[in-house]
């Protein structure tokens, strides 16, 4: 057996190698194409990207023709460089740099010399392209935005980088690829498939026809169209309401998890990132460290959620059976939780239970509920971890898994966090009591808050938020149709919803309602700190509002954050009300709120952050005369110069 084993292995291996060589050399001719690379020119036919529509069938993103000048460095010979540069409006130094860059990529393969010519440049160059050996024109399709909103949702397309080319053989130098937004998330679907034509060349490098009569040529396949869950009119309206403000708006359809609007402010027009000026415009937007227009606040900004978090505190208290709907606490305009430690409360005070605790937004009531929740267990760490599990079931403290590239987890602290923060131990419920009202160590993104309200509207379940509604020729990922159920039983949601409904009737949002429309909501005000000159400084609070409507059979859940917006009912509340009315009724009756929000300007608040002269902000911020005077007063007070304050007044 041993004598025959080795010869058998050698014979079998030899046969396998011979069969493989026969297949590669006789049957499979693709290697032959590669071996004859010097005699065969490969031309790519780039497909149109798929179109993008909103949920109502409105076209949002289409395509427009674009032309790139490609170069094969080894074929560039005896050209009039000065004439060439004059046509394309570049100088000789730029010309040499681009040729050198092309040589580094490959002396024999084509790469982009100059991208995205306009029609005049293309026409001028096309007339004389035959004079410039080694150069040819490659037609592509660029995005043509039909709307001037939704830039953060769409993303943009740009030239592929070298690292991507190394990882993915589909892409070649000069190819376009989606970045950010749905362009990146659905790149494989939107891009389509390139067509390929193999052209035979003679010994003089002249094209003499198709290789093998086009046997290996393929036709370009256009990208698939996609329909977004976004309501275009609602998105546009949200961006208009947020002009001269900073923050985010996220609106969801509770029963499906579809994203109806995803607003970040400030934003930019999507058309800025198309064409020859794309790179320059992107650099300008990227370097704007003040307004941060590329930072999607709806998905990436992590804020203390403030009073809307009391909804969860109440629900967990009911589930843990530490309180019921009739449990009462007495509020004396605050809650004392230690020697010299006092949590202030702005509610009218008195006897508080769940219902009026919600619509009056009583800090004392929810601090007591949270304290009981943690102290129900033998050790604080067990109580905190149980509370943490409830929060995680609402999608908090983790990635939600939506279908857009950026994301943040927010933060829901666990016992490990506090053990690390207090290495000597000694922490207990009173140490972390601020969590009860959405301050402390709790952080949430606007989309997490909107999803929380969708869960309340659904009485205990949610679907992963997503921006895709339909893909032509494809199925939507099943994870967007999978129901997630919270650890809080459905029966506990109704009393909380009743309290949220009365927020509009007799609570902190009284006066913001719409006749004939039942809205359930919750105001929020979150403390806002920053560092100025190395010192921790408290700035104007963030304005927050969450809501869903109608009360029965909800169609929209929403979260609004307005940075430095003070009370929740001052800015975020009116904006949420207007968005809800716009979506459900398709018209606005609260024109008083609309006028105030559209004309509202918070840039003077943001200007406080920067210790510069008022005049330096005017080019960057749209400051009214009144805003400028107000800002000067603030600066004077910061500098403690009474004479200046008196002079300004």
Automatic annotation (TrEMBL):
Please list the GO terms describing molecular function: glycosyltransferase activity; penicillin binding; peptidoglycan L,D-transpeptidase activity; serine-type D-Ala-D-Ala carboxypeptidase activity
Membrane spanning segments where? 5-24
What sequence ranges are listed for the domain Penicillin-binding protein dimerisation?
Answer: 47-209
Enzyme Commission code(s) on record: 2.4.1.129
Q: How does it sit in the membrane?
A: Single-pass membrane protein
Q: Which keywords accompany this UniProt record?
A: Carboxypeptidase, Cell inner membrane, Cell membrane, Cell shape, Cell wall biogenesis/degradation, Glycosyltransferase, Hydrolase, Membrane, Peptidoglycan synthesis, Protease, Transferase, Transmembrane, Transmembrane helix
Domain spans labelled Penicillin-binding protein transpeptidase = 247-576
> Which compartment or compartments is the protein found in?
Cell membrane; Membrane
Q: Which GO cellular component term is one of those annotated?
A: plasma membrane
Q: Which GO terms describe its biological process?
A: cell wall organization; peptidoglycan biosynthetic process; proteolysis; regulation of cell shape
**Which InterPro entries does the entry mention?**
Beta-lactam/transpept, Beta-lactam/transpept-like, PBP_dimer, PBP_dimer_sf, PCN-bd_Tpept, Penicillin-binding_protein_2
Keyword Lyase attributed = no
The name on file for this protein is: Penicillin-binding protein 2. Peptidoglycan glycosyltransferase
Question: Which species does this protein come from?
Answer: Flavobacterium indicum (strain DSM 17447 / CIP 109464 / GPTSA100-9)
* Higher taxonomy: Bacteria, Pseudomonadati, Bacteroidota, Flavobacteriia, Flavobacteriales
The protein's gene is named pbpA
